[in-house]
Amino acid sequence: MTGFLLETRDDAVVTLTMNRPEERNALTEEHQMLEFVDACERIRRDLTVGAVVLTGAGSAFCAGGNLKNMRDKKGFSAGSPSDIREAYRNSIQRIPLALYELDVPTIAAINGPAIGAGLDIACMCDMRIASDRAKFASSFVKLGIAAGDGGAWLLSRVIGQPLAIEMMLTGDTIDAQQAREYGLIGRVVPHGEVLPQAMDLARRIAANPRRAVRLSKRLLRESQAISLAASLEMAAAYQALAHYTSDHDEAVRAFLEKREPIFTGQ
Questions:
Q1: Are 138 and 165 in contact (CB under 8 A)?
Q2: pLDDT tens column, 221-239
Q3: Model-level pTM?
Q4: Which of 2, 21, 109, 244 has a CA that sits 20 to 30 A from residue 183's CA?
C-alpha cells in the first residue's frame, strides 16, 4: 500500500495530497497521521520550499476519523481509557503540533467535504480556499465524542468563540458559502478552480524571500498569544535576522534599480 500523503513539487511549492479517495481520505491508521509529522519536518528543514498546498484526492478533502474503527474499537479507539488517551497523544494529536506550527505558509485547497478531523486539519492551515461543492462540520458531538485533535482550540481562533461553539455543539453541516460568511474560508471558487487558485496563491507567496516569509508567519502566529510589548520585542529580533539576509539586500537593490529581484533563499 502506498503512503497516505502523496507529495509533489512544483518549483518552490510542495503539494501534499491525502490519497485515500475510496475512504474519503479518512484518518484510519497511526502511520497515516505520522506521515504529516514526517512531511512537515522535511519541509521545515528545506529552505527551498516557499509554500505548501494541502488537498484531498477524489471527492472529499477529509472525512475525519474512520467510523468502522470506532465501531470495532480498533486503531485509536482500542483498549482502555488510558490506552485511548495515549493513542490520541501519539498519533492524531501530533498533526496539529506539526502542521499548525510549520514555519512555511500552508494553504488548504478544500476540494470537497471537510468533516470532523478534516475540518480541524483545514483549520491548521494558514489559508483556506474551498470548492463550491465543499461542506464543513465539527461533527464529533454527533458521534458522542469530543474533538480530540485540537479542534476546540483551532476553530474558535479561526471563526470566533460564538460561531465555534454553535458548530461544535450542534454538529451541523454548513456549505461553502456559509463557511465564507463565518470567516472559515478565504474564498469560494468553482470546483475545478480550487487547486489552480491555491497553487497561484502559493506561487505568489513563494516568490518572496523565504526567510522573511517564515519569520513573518511565525511573528503573526506568536503575536496571537502575547502582549503588544512582547510582539514588538520579537519583531525587533526578527528584523535583525532579516536585515542580515542576502535576499533583503537584493530586494532593496532591485527596488532602487527598478528591476525584478532575484532571490536565492539566503
A1: no
A2: 999 889 999 999 999 999 9
A3: 0.93
A4: 21
